[in-house]
## 1
Amino acid sequence: MSATVRRNRTGNRSRSGNGSRAGDERAARPRADVRAGVRRTSAFLARRSLKAHRRAWGAVFTATTAAAALIGAFAFVVGSLLLAQPPVERYAGADAVVAGDQRVTYTAKPWGSEPKTATAYLPERVRLDRSLVARAASARGVAKAVADDSVPVTVTVAGVGAGAGSGSGGAGADAAVAVGRSWAAAALTPYRLTDGHAPRTAGEVVIDGALASAIGSGTGAHVTLQFDGAPRSYTVSGIAGTDRRGGSPTVFLTEHHLAAVAGHPGTVDAIGVLAEEGVSADALRASLEAALPDRARGDREVRVLTGAERGQAEYPDALGARKELLPLLASITGTVFMVALLVIATTISQAVHQRSGELALLRAVGATPRQLRSAVGREVSRVAGAAAVLGAVGAVPLGLLMRSLLTTDPLPLPVPVWLPFAATAAAGVLVALAARPVAVLAARTVTGLRPAAALGAAGAPEPGEPGRVRTVAGAVLALAGVSAAGAATAQGGQAAAVAASGAATSLIIAVALLGPWIARGATRVLGTPLRRAGGVSGFLADRSAAAHHRRLGAAITPIVLVVAFVCVQLAAGSTLERAADRQAAAALRADLVVTGPAAGLPAGAARAVREAPGVEAATGVLRSGVVLAHSEMGEPKLDRFPVLGVTADQLAGTLDPHITAGDPADLTGKGTVAVGEDRASDLDVGVGDSVELRLGDGTEVRLRVVALYERALGLGEFMLPREALAGHVAVPRDQLVLVRSADGGAAQAVRRALAAYPGAQVRPATADDVRIAPPSSDQDDAMVVIGVGVIGGFALLAVVSTLSLITVGRRAEFRLLRTVGAGRRQVRRMLVLETGMVAVAGLALGTLVAVIPLLAFAVSVTGSMPYLPPARYGALALAVAVAAGAGALWPGWSGGGRSALGRRT
């Protein structure tokens, strides 16, 4: 009985379990059917909406495509810059190169953190002790180690160019600039003799084929070479050739003679290493590193370079230039990213808001929130997906164009096969993923309504005020932007620039969030003159703007964005350039300047000029750089500064840095320095105090401050005696000689004095000759083109897309106005006046947003007002007006009879 009961109970439980699983399966099927139904409904709504709103989604497609192309192009360029290495030319035949470490480090302990180390690249070549050549040669697997030095040399054919030049030039119009190397180092490129024999004595040289063709010389001929002393005649013992293209013309001397003319017999530029047969690059590197000094043992570190790294020994400052360019490009890339997301969000939000009535009606007739959200998300995903693909394709040519602007001979930017695909794919995915959440968020106010409430919302006007969260966020960002601008006025240099940039970014985002409030204020300010000047059309424009603050705010935002961004980018550089020009012009006392080849003027040129009749003062100017180690809020910083090396006893007659303390006549020897006032204030030093600097080759020095001066923007933060820099630069030659004439007529006498110096030129002095940096370099111009041209162009495209989208969404409004009696010309004029109001409001507000951080930056860094050339601002205003007109007016005029403003309406 009990067994039977147990069997029945077991059976019942079994049957009950089977029934429960069957019930679960039956319940799961309806849920799956519901989900499938939601997907089908959403897909149907999305397809119908895409067809019905082609023009609106076309504007979104255009903006999203441009955003994807821009992000992809910048990702392409940043990736290429990260991979960039100097080219291998001079050491193409070497298996390894031993060179000094061009990096310098500084460690400090930030507040409440572990110690951190900053790294910077030195601007001058770090040389090696000559004794390391033997140590490298003794390493296992090394067939030969060669000391390699390069010395600039001016070459003329003997008997040519010996007399005084004519016109503005000096002597030696037929001179050629070349590089002197030892014949032993010829194997490192490699060069091979094509005629003659190697140099055997100090009076013989081998010249390469390119130089031989340039000067018309061959084996057995005589050439005049000038290193850093008097010109000397040499016999051409041979001609050498190489398979390598490019590079400087080369003159080969005996190793002993080259060491003598190089001027640093105890050191070498680098050591080229040729490996034994069968030795791999990794094995050679390990062997050399074991044989050479190591910082871990307390020695000064040397680097063993193989493969593509060998180019770093040829261009020692190339990676330093890359490190300076990367943060700037990264900053612009961050701005691009912000601008792109803002444009995408603005256009998609406007497109969705225009459909609020349609979505509310669908909600009222029974569509679920999930169906509406899915439908909107599907629409945007399809548009953004297609735009991302097209934008990714367009990113490649745009990225290649930007790369061509930034690439230089010392640092060509590589393009590996995978880079375009990776950069464009990342940009496309980013844009596609960002679009859907923005659309769903923009539609949330309608999709979350109850059906009864949605029925009333279907015909309600758009809300004129932003939500509380949006308003509070905008107010906080505006306050943060103004506070950052205020903080910039109390700082200097890079800190002020960073604070000003942060202020501009905060204010631009604040304007985007507070757009409806700003539009309301703009309507109140511009509405009265609009009504008075425009008659009926002005009245209609004023009433339309007052009733649609959200729409007007969306139209103003992209104009504010482009105006503020372009003004900040252009005016910051113009302000600094103008201040530096003024200070350099005020400092210049010389009336003549002597310039020479790119390698500089030999040491005797300044002395020869000084001894010329009618010359009151002449000082050679040696350019180099120093590195300053300091900390900001405990964070270690290494800043590179260009500096001038001058001759103190000739300084007063040629250059006036406007000394405010101390005596520039004390700027002599190897242990003194003059410091700009602002930098001295930052370092808290005065006359008699000491400043620790690292010279261009990394040598740490402690210098006594002998003078403070005011014109640091024009002449640099530090000024050193020429003799303090001469032993720490790659080529200790003056880049120019400043000349002060007694009566202003010493030009001919100076030219005659320079007859023995081929390539010297004499001309009137200008402020650019003494400026610490040239007014504009090729890379500066490239960054302006990229920062202003590319991003500004994208922002203008965003203006066109946004205003086009708004105009397309107003077709029903235009039809209603025509129905109640407004003439076509009246409606068109109303649209023109509204567009003008939008352009004026955007220009005024964008200018204000730019002026706040620019004023803080200019006052803190230059002590003057910000400056933007009127022609540039006029061009910007014209571009904005044209873009606004194209975006707002063209959709209203186009479309023929389908448009309420068309001729056949």
## 2
Amino acid sequence: MNQILDEQAPATAIQRADYSAPAWWVDSVDLCFDLDPIKTRVLNKMKLRRNTDLPVQALRLDGEELNLARVLVNGQGSTFKMDGNQLVLSNLPDECELEIFTTTCPSKNTKLMGLYVSNDSFFTQCEAEGFRRITYFLDRPDVMAMYSVTLRADKAKYPVLLSNGNLVDSGDLEGGRHFAKWVDPHKKPCYLFALVAGQLVCREQRITTRAGKDHTLQIYVRSGDLDKTEHAMNSLIHSVAWDEARFGLPLDLERFMIVATSDFNMGAMENKGLNIFNTKYVLASQATATDVDFSNIESVVGHEYFHNWTGNRITCRDWFQLSLKEGLTVFRDQEFSTDLAGTASARAVKRIEDVRVLRTNQFPEDAGPMAHPVRPDSYVEISNFYTVTIYEKGAEVVRMYQTLVGRAGFEKGITLYFERHDGNAVTCDDFAQAIADANPSSVLPSLLPQFKRWYSQAGTPRVSAQGVFDAASQTYTLTFSQHCAATPGQTEKLPFVIPVVLGLLDANGNDLPLQLEGQDEIHTGSQRLVLTEASQSFCFTGVNAEPVPSILRGLSAPVVLAFDYSDAQLLHLLAHDSDPFNRWEAGQRLAVNRATAAINDSSANPAALDAAYIDAMRAVLRHPTLDAAFKELVLTLPSEVYLAEQLTVVDPQRVHTVRQAMREQLAIELKADWETTYAATQETGAYTPDAVSSGKRALCGMALTHLCLAAVAEGNDQWPAIALQRFKNASNMTDRFNALSALVGSGHALAIPALEEFHALFKNEALVLDKWFALQVTAPDVGGNTLPNVKKLMKHSDFSLRNPNRARSVISSYCQANPAGFHRLDAAGYQFWSERVLELDAINPQVAARLARALDRWSKLAEPYRTNARQAIARVAAKSGLSKDTQEVVTRALAD
């Protein structure tokens, strides 16, 4: 295997330590596009000046898959040379005007990076390195320039012509063509450039901000989709208002535009003033979108709008600083959605949902071959580092700043950050220093050098805690120790700064007053401790009976907590903890303990749930004041992926068998309560995607799912028949899809006609069909039938490998969201994976590299899965001509 890899000449890694400022600056860019799907002509006129802080160097411009026709310097022909994909010009004057004329073929651009065609319209995607596929340029984020853009195209085919900034001129041209000229009033890096041209319709809204300024908001979609844009527009309006109210950051453009396309590698892109979105995060109606879709749209619209300041106005010096904008902006969109949630319970539900993503996706990444710090030290392909570590863990690092300096202190830090760096390309260190300098009396300034280990050290720290109660002295001492396991390239880890928010519960479930030994201050409810050493102890006084500690409330740091809770203590926390997160966490720990015990004991009856656990879940279901959304979260068992991460050696089939048995046991033993719950939650009135109504629909769907499971286990058709009727009569997609999922998940025969009817109803709704495909490939693997069904669905007339959404809905859903169906004893799932990775790599390397990560954790698998998985990875790695994207992933996987 090593010999094959050696022959394939691995791509060179780029090192953060090698950063140097650009040898040239670009002051302005004047672009003119003659748009044609076969041959688009791009005229690029730039004003450049030498960076006099550096030794004299040639100008090296990046380009990829371009046809170069002309190069002029100050209007005159110039000599140049090509060095790989770079255009090199030497002996230039210190200031000059450079003109470059190129052509490109957007219709053949299946990578969806740079300028491409989707459904007869033009779109761009330039982050991270797509602009070099449009014209030769200094394609790096620290080169910021002023842009003017002229678009020319056939007026009948492309009546809408959009780019960044303000429309300053437009009109007709000869031959049925027309033009539009856009000027961006803000300088930007080239990765924020965008253009769109096509047959589009627009929803427009005029708003007046708190500052009293008028702005135009626009959402462009294909004809027929306009009625699905109201929620996205409302989300955008809420985002503008929230950012100005919370952080004092107003909309800085006359108009702000969103455009939706069905062919898009990512969720959305924050191009300055012209955001381009995957349709998945724009289009929604109650007939076609679930409550989760509505929530995701609100979050993603907010995220991209918030980038207007944290990412656009202040951008990254280099791509190693990616979390500077992404981690910060994820934190901001989480805070936005939390604030909009309203009630304390809804806010808690949002936090729990965010933590589930972190634990299910990021913690495994931290423990696998692709582990990397929040600020990586090297990469081969930057597209591979748009990861949950950069985004979700990066957001947790930002959240810890707020925990350490307080909400008001954090807002002061953001204000100082913009005062210092607006309009510049900066680093994570600049952000950290601004937060610290704005809060000189907090603990952060003295801890900042150590705190920044969160940026440089990979891995998830493990915090072990032990509690000792001394009745004689009425004290309770908590001793914490922290450790972080070795990760690729990092064997020794220094202690992190870890804020630990905790409370102590008495026998009645009340929070005790907290007073640390030697301190006068008494805290009510929760107290924040700060761990900075490998081991530390904290002694609380005035404790007259042994308490139950509630540690890491709200998950105050992205760590794994090891505390030897007894079942009685966990049940106490589940019943009484004032912190909703730790209340939910207690239920998860109870379930994990039972699942792992059953998985590890081969002689154990898979029905792993004892009476105490069943009674606790019954109490949650019957609780008179708990919100429905919170109940649904507590009653959802830990996923198979999360359970696998708790094991040293993983047998995917055993994990699935045990978890499925637990689900069926909950279904049967709580059947009467599920019936009561279903009856109480099936009607929510007129559809609205608010937190309370969404929570009721989620719990109702869960009840129906369990009732169908119980019915199939007992050989009873009553509840599947009810589910089918609910499917037919549903007035919204959430209820309809919940009913369909209940039928498919239970394996009842009525699922077949329901799936057929669903397709007939929504055959013209691409996003709904994505759900239809994904539901089938993630269904329980009965008799090994899932993989044949996946292959069958890939031959369906509605399947297209070239559409990222559709490819993900079938292939990625199967390989990454159906462990039992994918990890087959005959290795057929792995063979399928390797074939699809190679097939996609030739079309769209970004999608292929994401799919390649389905086997990141192969080394934890039991035999024969482990050997078979490694062989599959090796087959992909041995392929000649593999993209940098996929090569980096599989090479790192094999080194695990």
## 3
Amino acid sequence: MASVPSHRVALAGVVWLALCTGCATTSKSDYIVPGTTDLRISQVDLRGVEQVSESELRDGLATREDPGWRAAVPWLPLIGAERQYFNQFSWQRDRERIETFYQRRGYFGASIVSESIIENPQESTISVRVTIDEGEPTRIERIELEGLDASSELSRDALLKELPLNQGAIFTQDDYLTTRDALGRRLREAGYAYAAVSGRAFVDPESQKADVFFFIDAGPRSRFGEVHIFGLEDVEERYVREAITLEPGERYDPQRLNETQEDVYELGVFGLVTVLPAHEAREFTLEEADDRDRLEDLLEESNIPDDSDPQAGVDARPRPGVDAAIAPGDDGAANREDASQSSETSEDSPRERALGVSTLLESAQLEAERRSRLDPEVPVVVRLKEAKKYNLRVGAGLAVESARQDVRGLLNWSARNFLGGLRRLDHFNAAGYAWAPGLIPSADLVNRGAILSSELRFSQPQFIERRTNLRLIASVERDVREGFSVWNPALRVGLDRPIFRKLRLEASYNVAYYNYFNVEESLVDVSTTTLGLDFQTEFLLEYLEQSLILDMRNDVLDPTSGALVALTVQEAGGFAVGGEFDFIKPVLSAEGYVPFDLLGRSVLAMRTRLGSVYNIGRDTGVPIQNRLYSGGTDGMRSFGRQRLSLYTPSGEAVPVGGLTQFEWSVEPRVRLVPNLFSIGDVWGAIFVDAATILRGQLEFDTAANDQGTVSFSQLAPSLLYGLGTGVWWNTPVGPVRLDFAYTLSDTSQDPRFRRCADPSTQGTEACVFVPQDDDAIQELLVGYGFYLSIGHSF
């Protein structure tokens, strides 16, 4: 990459600063917003607000309380804010906004009954106080559907089932629009690609009643037509078509369009993918003139007129003196005058209303007749925008755990469509320095040193056949941990393939070389053989791994509904290059997310994990990095990372894992603040964690096992419990989360976390604990944990 001379950068910066300063000076000194005063707003007091959310009402007003001390740091992201001065014109518009806010929520008779604006010249402030009479809500008296073909498979009840607009419910414009859009969506899901729904709502604020009419224009029953691809530059079209499974003549189903969009996006070379029926694709602008011409020719050939958007409806506006109507596309501000006049409607109001409905039906019927001539075979338009081919990212990171801290620099680069054929190459690099267990250790042991990781990833979609992906990962790592440092070059060759839409199978071959140094003496001491380690400072590990993953979550980073179930099995052995261990390691995990309402939007999040390692061959035991641990953000959160473990029976306290693991967590999540600073919602949670690590193999013994077995009945009594709370902010980079957890269980009497005076009796009834103050394990288990992270534990 060519560098820019520093003096040019400095000069450009000075010029830019001068220009921006001039602009800022002009905008602030020469222009004053009409109606603005020099009085800061000390208070906005809204009285009588009971039936609606006061915070939502305030968010919609331009008149807001002055931020106080935050105005002293307006340049500070997220915290800083501008001064709020009273503006007479803005307040007059806010009065209208208050009434509109209530009307959108079904309170058409709401009004401001009193108002006081009090100035304080000594402090240059002003306070605003209004009292609101909310009145009674308007409820739905009847809902009518017109235009539904009697021969259709869809019935009125099926179309209206579980929609927000119901007879007797409070009428709101949002519910009306949601219901109208849902009706159109259900028709399209039934195979009517051109389905359109228009409607009208007649509101009478005096009687607090509303009549709602929808006209159903289903259009012809549709099939998929030819697929047309737009926007390709470097990627060959044949690879995109290989990912598309839509067949001409197949029954129209919008879900199939969504699935096709996901399949094309997963090719990894596109920054934008939209898959739409041709009559909806006109809304999207194509960059290339040739593509625009192709699309217009396609629409003309398919006899698709410009106004055939399935969301378009008959926008019949109400006349003065007729009950207020909300027509498709209204923003809620329109027709307020008609609403206010409805209380004065004459005896002819029912007749006028009938005429209004008749006009709507007549216009909709004419539109339906015109659109009935549309071709039932619907062309599909795939619009693509290729992602940036090369990316380079430089950064820095800091990781703070109770068992380890590190600082590191990051250098990552990626190449999409590498050498063509959809191939992708990514290179992730990090270098820094680490301390374990920490800068201020709780034990005498301190291991420190340089850390390094470099990982090269190569992926080839459509390997062998259209749905199979090849993935190669080559890496080298130098790491610092409690009790040892390690060099670890590794290679992974894997294949993955979806079996069904939500079910994926992954298989890989893995080989890794481990070279341990700066090893704590207790790891290599002969007494540690009671843990089945037979610790080796240098060895080769070779294993196969298979995973079956069922992912039904609605979001990967911040799931609020659905579930994830995964079964992973590792088989170590000497397959190709002479691996030195023989074991089988199955791990079953599950996550679930159930939305519910408790003090607002809430989600019940749950997880569990069960795993065991079975030594099936040579007497080399199970290497330390393949044993099972808990603790940290992805385990028992009141323990540090991998601190819930068995420990070396002598010397310093080094966690060495176990052969059986069981965990579960329950975490009710509640939204606390919607859209803080217009960035994202703030959520909070209280969680309970439970976990155990046991020495023996679960249920089954093997010839090479020297650690014994444990039964399912022993899992629950050995669980440790922790209680914690967390808060996070949903930002564009993911949930930024802070957690605190505290251990409820007493570890001081648990033999897994106590040293024996005679190390050879560790784990037996003959063990006599050393004094707690002299126990190195107890010094490490502080009983609580703090975590600041991006993303959830699960």
## 4
Amino acid sequence: MNLMRMMYKTATLLVVVFAFVACDDEYSTVGGEIIENPSNLELEEVEVTAYSKKINSVQTNNLGNHLLGVFNHPIYGQTTASILSQVSLPTNNPTFGVEPELDSVVLTIPYFSTEGELDTDGNIEYVLDSIYGNTPIKISVQESNYYLNDLDPEADFQERQKYYSDQQDLFEQNLVGDVIYENDNFIPSPRAIVSYEENAEGQQDTITSGPALRVKLPVDYFQEKIIAKEGSSVLSNNNNFKNYLRGMFIKAEPTAEDGTMIFFNLQDSDAGIELFYTTEVETSTDNGGTETVRSPRNYQLNFGSTIVNTFEGEYPGDVLQAIEESNEDTGAEKLFLNGGEGTMTIVELFESEAQIEAFRENNWLINEANLSFYVDQDFASEINEPTRIYLYDLDNNRIIADYNFALNFVQDGNENNPATSLSSFSTPLERDEDGNGIRYKLNVTQHVNNIIENETENVRLGLAVTQNINITNNAAVRNTEDVEFYPVMGVVTPQGTVLHGNLSNDEEKRLKLRIYYTEIN
């Protein structure tokens, strides 16, 4: 690279992000068509190959957050998400006092929510986040006898054990005893949770916390399972306890065509199974004597470190057929993206090394390279589309250079907001005046420059929906040809869309690699 070219490239790198964002301001909609005019640079449109892959089985015990419920997607059909979780002791060898009597047992899993205004009675009103759908579902809770390993015995306990989204049948074969909770008409409520706690003066304080899935479990079951085992080996440490009470299976089932899907954090500090009981204590009387009274106590079992999401559901036949007919040699007319045990798109930018070499010989300074994915509004109109999509190095299971570049670009204090952060890498979905999705735009300037200038490998790129573009962890995939990893933030969203592919009948919206360049003499 000569000195002049190096100087041009260095200057361009300093402004490429700003140019990418600024280009969005230069789009205008006229008659439904998007007109581009990015800084009057030269434009080269490069044919790419893109096709869809159905993810048949994905690791779900490394998600952090989990889905529970039923969601009926207008395109991808009905999906049901259930959860199998370990239960753990907060302390080893718990003692419950003299003659403990269990009063109630409450399962609590907080929703993601935000505080709103005060109502007329002065109570905080909450708005639930990450709830998909609004019709009742059936949920049930039952003890599992399936042992969830933290570490993989086949890897000499040096690696974490992997559990997968398609293992529900196996888990259900290992359920024991009666169902301990069942609700055929469950729907999340935005109401605050109000409880009462006795203070040091013996008065009842009112405790208010955010909305949660909060249900009562049977006292007799936990009296026998936990309270009666005080002093035994099964409560002496968590290894023994996890083998004794191997887990709880929280199952969701549809009650109608639609349903409700909930995005949960089971490792929230308030999540768990809380036992409320009383025990005998000696207290002083006014005349200097003592008396025995019953004093309230509580003990909370936590959800363990191994929590597995399972998914059940089938795509409609025409959608599944279109995905299966995606051609890795020529690409596809439509690109399918869906979360959960979902569908991703594979993008190949250059067809051969000879094509890349031709670009090297052009002596171009690449100012910007991008991929614009247009929503197929004929196929995906009036759906709840994902706000963000995520592009990554599929072959090496890592972020691409443009993602890393965007990390260093602070965007008006929104760098941690999943809806707006890293927009210099991946723009949030553009919508028309009716709220329908138009397109997503991905910046691949640094990635393309690295291939052409630095001779880095022309890897396959993976495209997926994402719940949070700030999180880039990937989950292992099995039973899916040519795909080994899939973003965890794609697993934990039920949203999906359909995009125009490189063979789209609408030539204006076909997927292409657009390279804006300056010729260097």
